[in-house]
Amino acid sequence: MLQTIEVEIDAQGGIHLLRDLPSSNLCDSIGVLKDSPCFNEDPVEIQRKMREEWNDKE
């Protein structure tokens, strides 16, 4: 699912794809993370850990 793309950034900050991306349907993404070990905890606990991580970087 993860895809690397190549882009050019022009002097004004515009981003231009170096090749067309394959078309995809949002429905193809539904449920792909449901069995991921990263999301097996309580959603509130996951959010708390993410906030702590972000606050540690400041």
What can you see in these coordinates?
The protein is α+β, with helices and mostly antiparallel strands. Helices cover 26% and strands 10% of the residues. The chain has a two-stranded antiparallel sheet with strand order 1-2. The longest helix is centred in the C-terminal third of the chain and has 15 residues, at 43-57.
- State the strand order across the main sheet: 1-2
Q: How many DSSP E strands? A: 2
Number of helices: 1
Q: What is the straight-line distance between the termini?
A: 30 Å
Note the beta-strand portion: 5-15%
| Radius of gyration over C-alpha positions, nearest whole angstrom | 17 Å
Helix content estimate: 25-40%
Tell me the series of helices and strands, N- to C-terminal.
EEH
Report the mean per-residue pLDDT as an integer.
Answer: 81
Largest sheet features: 2 strands, antiparallel
Which parts are unreliable, with pLDDT below 50 for 5 consecutive residues or more? none
Return the structural class.
Answer: alpha+beta
* Approximate shape: flat
